[in-house]
Amino acid sequence: MEGLSFSYYRDHLETFSIFSNSSSSSSSNNITYYIQLIDQDTGEAYGEPTKYNNYSSINQNLILEALEFSYSYAFNTTSLGTNWTIIIDDNGHNPLFLNSERVTRTSVLSLGFSVTTITDFVLAHENNGDNRSLISMAWGTKDGGAIVQGIPNTHLVISNDTVSLQALDQNGNPNNGVGGTTIPCNNERFGSGLNIQNTEYLIHCSTIDIMGTESVYVVAIPKNELLSFDHHQQQLYKKKGLALLIVMIFMILIALLSFLSMNARNAKREMRLRASLLKQMEATQQAERKNMNKTHAFAAANHDVRASLAGLTALIDMSFDLVDNGSELETNLKQMKGCTQDLLGLVNSILDTSKIEAGKMQLEEEEFDLSILLEDVVDLYYPMASNKGVDLILDPCDGSIIRYSRVKGDRGRLKQVLCNLLSNAVKFTNEGHIAVRARAQKPTSLHNSLMGSSSSGEKHGGFMERLSSWLFWKKSSEEAGGDHHEGESMSDSTQQTEACCVMDFIFEVDDTGKGIPKENYKSVFENYVQVKETALGLGGTGLGLGIVQSLVRLMHGDIEISEKDLGEKGTCFTFNVLLNAYNTITNPTPKEEEEQQQGSNEKGPLPTLQTCSSGSSICSISPRFRIRGSSPKPEPSRVVMLIADEYRRKATQRFMESLGIKVMAAKRWQDLFHVLKKIKQRCLNSSSQSSSSHGSEYLSVSSTLSRSRGLPLSSMDGNFDELNLSDGLVLVVVDTNAGPVFELWKMVSNFKRGLCNPCQIVWLDKKKMLLKDLDRNMLDQKDIVLMKPFHGSRLFQVMRLLPEFGGGSSRSHNSRSGKSLRDWNSSSRCHSYHEGERKGENDGGEIIQEGEDAKPLSEKKILVVDDNPLMRMIALRTLIQLGAVIEQCENGEAAVKLVGDGLIKDFPNLPYDYILMDCQMPEMDGFEATREIRKIEKRYENVRIPIIALTAETDKMSIDAGMDFHLEKPIKRQNFLAAIRYINAKHS
Amino acid sequence: MDVVTQMQRQLLQYTSSLFKEGFLDDQFNQLQQLQDESNPEFVVEVVTLFFEDAERLLNELSKSLEQESIHFRRVDAHVHQLKGSSSSIGAQRVQRVCIAFRNFCEQQNVEGCLKSLQEIKQEYSLVKTKLETLFKMEKQLFAAGGSSVSR
């Protein structure tokens, strides 16, 4: 207890050092302590040391005890090692762990910790610092040396590896038998329980090594507190889980709700859509109904129009009887009648529109001459066009239309189409020209595809119809071929099919009018559409092109507006139709060659062109035929043309040149003089000079000649060498429109004078200027004056004047043909048509004649079968007027009997030439009677009496029953004649 | 001759009115064309035949339609005949009603049939009077020395 002592201690945040010099006083009571502040970082003391008198507060006893202990320990043991003890001060507070070490003999170093510090540390370790206040703790070294009784009301004894804890009662006496436990200190996780003063404690014992001293600590935790704590924790977790659950449910609910609402919205939308669809459908149906009603009303109105038109026709007919023959009024009436018929046709066409709309349109197949049809149509519109100062030209193109002119198809519809396009063209063209071009070609796949665009139903039916008709015609043509060329080999059948085939006819109507804006090219074909700007003030329903398109499609073609070159005015409608065509010229095989001339004549395909009964016809356009035809008459003719309209001139020139005719065309009337002079010179020269030089000159004159098809130049030259030029005809075609008539006349008559070649003048005099300006006597009798447009058959007629095409080389022949042409020309168009028809019939070997007084059915025996006396009477009268001999009976049975008896009586002669059979009769109707009659006929050889059915309905049943034709009631003269013609054509 | 011309004009006007009002159609013209010197009374004969025929048919029709159970096929046949007759003289209004009648027959519509029958009767009597007037006028004209218009 003597000497110096020095110690550091921490009080709160400051570190102090206490030192004393005990050597200065012998009594421990008089030790003076000094306190000095210590710098925490450096450990150096700073500040003034103050004398510390209040040493009671620093627990002198403790220090002393500690010092004592250490002293004794250090000095007694004098060994190195860890010597820890727990020192408890008098009050039992602030126990210290203390270790002392002897340094020297007299010096001891002690180190002490407050137990609470370590307790805190351990508890922090054990319990994460929670609920520290509740936990009490006891300490002791393992060897049982030092014990800190930290747990209240207990007595702790530590022996070796176990700790026994004895609970004390309130007086501090051990509560025997009640509380006490012994716990092994083996760091078990769970301790045992102990009841201390009615409180359950959980006791846990652990060992701890504090600076090498094996120590034990016991932790006592009140059980219920722990439980409540756990419970609390659990509650917390539960709450958290519940919150989570609620959140999840909430989210699920939201998802569900949104899904439901989306569903609902979708459903609503669908409902709305359905509702609108229903509404739309209703509207559509209503519109359709309205449309239907409109169509019906339309049809009804048209029907009435038709009725009044019929009245008009009748009136005109009546007026005919009142006027003198040949008066102007009569011609006017004729034209009026034509107009009313056209109008009727138009109304019918409008009715057809509704038919087309309903898809019920049907084509009536009949045989007709396409070139005549074209010419008719063009001539029909020619006056209208020329009134407007527009030239209407029928361009023959390559002549293919003439070759295939005999076709089978719906004549009326085709005419309707052409008329419609032409009337449009005339309507919208105020200057220039309108050209109608037509050509035939083999159907190409392109047009098949066009055909495909038409509605499938039509197409199907149409195709079957076409196929059947094609087969039918093939058969009939073979029959016909058999009649004409008996003993022909089988190989000819292919040629026959060649002769009758489906051809694609392409028509173009080209005008120089206002044209149609390009964007309207498609829409003009829709019904009721008119091009506003151009149609201004011209009227029309806008129905025409729609019908045209429907019709063209019905005929397996299509229509479109061709694009014109830049700078060209106007519109060009192009359409094509498929028709059954008969090649009017069969390609001559070597074997057939000699028959050709005869054959082509016999068949007589082109009646109007057959009027000149010479070897070859004008329609022989195929190159081979032409060469053959021209070789016996080698002299080339020349054509000089003066035509005002450029297009007509070029078209005519091109056509003639394509046939190998040399054409010189004068553009202006002044040029004509030079051209004529040249020709004259050449002709005069030719008589004296060698011919070879002329050949070359010719070539220079007409360069296009070398291009003419199938005609090699060498052969041309060869022909030229041999020919006698003086025989070549000079054909001069002069348009009186092109210049002053008198000048032209002078020029031409000068030319004629002193010309050694035969010469034929054709005046084109559409405005009758020739007769106005010239005296009739001034014109040469041989000259031909054409007042109608120079195209079509008139062009061919004129061309036939050329020796190459049948015109005689002699002058007399010329004049004769010229005269016939003039006669023909002066007669009306209608008449020419009749003439043509009559010719055709004559060629067909029939004696039927048509005319005012003629009785085409004279000496024909006809049986009229009808139950109705009225009908019988009318039929009787009709047929008697036609010159027929009539027998009549009331029903089918009687008819069958009459036929049977008649056949038995004198078989080789047929009892009747025709039978006119009513279909609906009592007892035995027409169909059955026909079947019976056909049965009877079978007993004889080669007997078939043509039976014409008379029906009220237009049903086709009659054909099935074996009837040859069916007529609609009431019987009409023209219809009956047409039927007879049809039957004859079929049987011949 | 003035009277004759006037009568001719009247007749013409009358005839045209018949056409205009749709009583007659082109078929009547055809009939007139069938009349010639060898058969000068042809039109009158035919029309008289028509009258007889029509009256017979109309009687039959009335009888058929009065019955309890109507034999529609027979009615249809009658109407068909009447249609044929009327169309062959060109009485197109009668003919038109016949077409409607036949439609009703097809539908077995008794009311429609009866209505049509009434209509036919009316049209028939109308056309009959008209034609009779026409013939009377022609006769008068003929008596006055004018030639028949129809020739």
Automatic annotation (TrEMBL), chain A:
Record SMART domains: HATPase_c, HisKA, REC
Domain called Response regulatory: residue spans: 861-984
Alphabetical list of Pfam families matching this protein: HATPase_c, Response_reg
Matching CDD domains: HisKA (cd00082), REC_hyHK_CKI1_RcsC-like (cd17546)
Membrane topology qualifier: Multi-pass membrane protein
Localization terms from the record: Endoplasmic reticulum membrane
Enzyme Commission number(s) from the entry: 2.7.13.3
Keywords: Endoplasmic reticulum, Membrane, Phosphoprotein, Receptor, Transmembrane, Transmembrane helix
Transmembrane segments: 242-262
Name of this chain's protein: histidine kinase
Organism: Stylosanthes scabra
TrEMBL record, chain B:
Gene: AHP1_7
All copies of domain HPt, residue ranges: 39-144
Main location per the UniProt record: cytoplasm
Record organism: Stylosanthes scabra
PANTHER family listed in its UniProt record: PHOSPHORELAY INTERMEDIATE PROTEIN YPD1 (PTHR28242:SF52)
Protein name: Histidine-containing phosphotransfer protein
Keyword ATP-binding (UniProt): no
UniProt entry tagged with the keyword DNA repair: no
Domain-related comment: Histidine-containing phosphotransfer domain (HPt) contains an active histidine that mediates the phosphotransfer.
